[in-house]
Amino acid sequence: MSSRFLLYLLKRFGMAIFTIFLVIALTFFIMHAIPASPFSAEKALNDATIRALEAKYGFDKPVIVQFFNYLGNLFHLDFGLSTAWVGKTVSELIGDAFGYSATIGLSAAIIALTLGVVLGAFAALTRGRWPDKIIQVVTTALVSMPSFVVATLFLLIFALRLRWFPTMGSQPGGLVLPIISLSLYPMAYTTRLERSAMLDVLGQDYVRTARAKGLPRPKIIYKHALKNALGPVVTYAGPMMAYILTGSMVVENIFAVPGLGRLFVNSMMRTDYMMIMGVTIFLATLIISLNLLSDILYKLLDPRIDLR
Amino acid sequence: MIMQNNDSYQERSKRFFTLQQTPDLFAPATEEDKAQQVLTKPSVSFFKDAMARLRRNKLAMLCLGIIIVIALVAFIAPIIYPYSYTKQDVTAQYLKPFEYSAKEQAKIAKGENIFPHIMGTDNLGRDYAIRVIYGTRISLMVGFIAAVIVVIIGIIYGSISGYFGGKVDLIMMRIVDIIYSLPDVLIVILLSVAIKDIVSQSKNELVIKLGAGMISIFIVFGLLYWVGMARQVRGQILSIKEQEFVLAARASGAGARRIIFKHLVPNCISVIIITAAMQIPSAIFTESFLSFMGMGVSIPMPSLGSLASDARIGLVSHPFLLIFPALTIFLIVLSFNLLGSGLRDAFDPKLRN
């Protein structure tokens, strides 16, 4: 078992690394298909600077050589220089912004997963009665609302009208609304997943056996049912992080949080190619790694799963 | 074979292993025996049965009705509606729903008939209802095209992978695994940045009208969105390809293409319908998300996402500009979601809980 698991880990790691490589190559070649030079976008640079920069990053060389140079630089976390924010490297800018995005993303993920599992299990246990019905109606509504709609409505109601929270994310307490608006959709989705997984498990023979043995109800729920109903939620955790990280882009813009998403959108507005490439690769690597993590966790949780 | 009467059947079953044939086995059937063979009910195909189940689901039918009404409005209203989505009117900025501008009120006083601004007007004095209708049209189109792309590519890819199995399957599914973990939104954004110049210089009117954002969305749907469908179809085909009717088809000389499209794919119809229905809201979400970030359709063409984004200017004084597109997108996605789960219940009764 353990050697097979090791082999599985190795395979998945290999695939994840290949996928990351693919993203880097895709990003690089898509951006290089644009006729303009990465440095010709901003008027702030003069000819000599452009030439110096092009020499530094080897833009006079063939594309394939440039690609391997870029790839080599990535290993040293050198994403190149930003052209819109003069004098800053892409890595610095990403580093500054990532703290905000990580705070928002992690908090949203934790809220979504814990609340989702609790509400989902609760709905399954009260199946057909009013708590279940309320939870079902609310979650159905929530999974039909894009995060940007929720965020803009929150901005309008809680920040602009009621003034309970600041409108700017950088002010104290300003991250509360972005976190809540980002967590609602994945929370509702997790609830639905957990509910149906829990219902599935509660109908299984071993739960009936546990009940027949006379085990107390809480023990059956926690030990037998809940633990086995976590699988679908764990597999969803990876795609959920992708949703949160990309959804963070609009939410950060709505609440003016100086995070990665805002940086990304700003660099797009100012056509900062190095920045766009850097953030894309950074985010994609993050998403792919988190996907890998949730897959491995799933396999660890459920040893019955066929390791392929 | 029709037994003449119960006695001879019992008698025969006692001597089950005997090969001896008694003459009474070959006697002609009586009218009574024949009557037993007549079908009392016409046979119902799985598809018809599922559709009947769907029709009994009131919520799903209501959602289907809402979708049809929205689609009809979105595609017919622009033809008969008196305002255009581009027409600006500085005298009619920020009108509330059913409010008339001073100029229009003067015309009404003269006895002219002026069509009301059902949802008011926006910051440039454009009629908002027609803009929301056009936005709805974009959303529905994106959902529909995504579903078509997903169905076509997903079925072909999934069925080939499932039918041939072995190494082919392994390689094809590895590719699917890789595509599955690619972040689609990021790639759409990247692509739309990259092809912006090419699109804006294009001579094709449709290309310009759609804009770099929409074209990238469709390209990425074609490249990445079908993997879920491919997985589902492959799984279904793996489970049915060992059945006898496939063997019979192969024995009578049918080729791979015929077996796949005549025998296997029709048996996957339930997963195909369910997966396609689930994919539509997700496609609509992606489009509105990108439009909200300013990367969807190009101006002045509105989309529900870009309308919601534009509404952030003057949000406090004109919340209607946010609420109308937000409600529309909510209604569309909600209806598709509920219809999707209705379809799942109808086509896969085992899954219902």
Polypeptide structure, described:
The complex is a heterodimer of chains A (308) and B (353). Chain A has 308 residues and is mainly alpha-helical. Chain A has a domain of 158 residues: Orthogonal Bundle (MetI-like fold), CATH 1.10.3720. Helix content of chain A is 74%, strand content 0%. In chain A, α1 runs antiparallel to α12 and α10 runs antiparallel to α12. The two termini of chain A are 13 Å apart. With 353 residues, chain B is an all-alpha fold. Chain B has 16 helices and no strands. In chain B, α3 packs across α16, α4 packs across α16 and α11 packs antiparallel against α14. The longest helix of chain B has 37 residues. Chain B is elongated, with a radius of gyration of 29 Å. In chain B, 39% of the residues are buried. The model of chain B has no long low-confidence stretch (mean pLDDT 82). The chains are: A mainly alpha (308), B mainly alpha (353). At the A-B interface, α1, α6, α7, α10 and α11 of A face α7, α8, α14, α15 and α16 of B.
